[in-house]
Amino acid sequence: MLDIRALRSNGAAIRDALARRGVELDLQAFETLDGERKQADIRSQELQARRKSASREIGNLVQSGISVDEAKARVAETLKEIDEQLDQEVARAQAIHQQIEEMLMGVPNPPQDVVPDGLSEDDNVEIRRWGEPRSFEFDVRDHVDVGEGLAGGHLDFDAASKLSGARFAVMTGGLARMHRALVDLMLDLHTSSHGYQEIYVPYLVGPDALRGTGQLPKFEEDLFRIAGERELYLIPTAEVPVTNMAAGEILDADALPRRFVCHTPCFRSEAGSHGRDTRGMIRQHQFEKVELVQMVRPDQSTQALEELTAHAEAVLQALALPYRVVDLCAGDLGFSASRTFDIEVWLPSQQTYREISSCSNFLDFQARRMQARWRNPETGKPEPLHTINGSGLAVGRTLVAILENYQNADGSVTVPEALRPYMRGLETLEAR
RNA sequence: GGAGGGGUGGCAGAGUGGUCGAAUGCAGCGGUCUUGAAAACCGCCGGGGUUUAACGACUCCCGUGGGUUCGAAUCCCACCCCCUCCGCCA
Fold this sequence. Notes:
By secondary structure, this protein is α+β, with helices and mostly antiparallel strands.
């Protein structure tokens, strides 16, 4: 959520920054509403103050032996005025506050100044590449053909569609094991080498958590909501439950940074992406992800984003998968992000790099929505902290990348060396 | 699913209609004392908002939302959460 004080004192700069991502902020409307709010606050608070002192006076009179009716009669004028106006004015002020809240909750995070200009992914800026895409001396097949052709366990979209329809996958045998091994490798790497604490969280969350990270109120159609009396949603990413661990908290300065790594399934309706990536397991309603989440002091978040991105890259380096890192342009940023580095892995079948991780600095945007704060020793006051997260990595897409990059002419797949200890030394997934 | 108990400041824990945003203890912060530390003693010490250059002033918040009342932490209703016992269960 935007900082309402910053909006009052520096609205034009925020409006201009938002314009870079193609969002028009109606400053005039905000200022009008905020002005009404001020009037309503002053009036309702004044009335409340009068009621308070009148009540207090009645109390004093009653205690000095005067009857309640008599005491009320002595402040009758104030009581009448209160009776006529107070409820109405308080309700008015409340309604305006709610309107402002709704307005602010719908506005995305302004991009940082360093974010490149541009309105679509075409304007993203590549900032580095790692690894050399392999040259194949045979016709490469995509991960669907490779996966479906494996012996001793394979990729089975027919079975998945029988169970759940489109955009789901079934994996069996060695392939399922490799999928599980990837999760294990990632968790081990981040906990033992990068200083993250592993955390297990619910896969169903309530609306407050989703508002906190920014999925609600604007993007409900991207979520799966479960039937039943309680308002619960399947998590679209572990970011939601993990970041909201800090909701409503005031953390001590020495408790920061907090670093969590969390493996969960993720559930996305993919509304609005019909026809995109319909083949294979690039875009699924359900996929596994290992997520990195950090809560940091505001002066550390820029550096923390660089580090977190490197932590995600380390997984691809361990697996020797070629990738590049892209600095997202203003128009391609997610709703809550102020800056994002996408990591894209090389997919030989598409002869292109595809997103496998998205690492973002949210600054205090999410923290303000969920009231996640730290106590700044310099001011002694609670202040919003900064949140950062990124995939480390999307497991399904990592598996896709391995199937494609490690495929052999005979249809088998070599198991990356780093993964072998997690697969009891298995070196190859054989072809049928 | 049945029966009962309970949600108050970082924690513990008083408060059952009137200067209560709230006793007390612990923790924390500052100070006195001390070579230093501990102990002792003194002081400070919840959060949001409005207003102010600032000091300050005002207002809201005692699980959440309604209600009763001149006045609600305290009474009433609904919901949520936690605990204990019984039943069921991965």
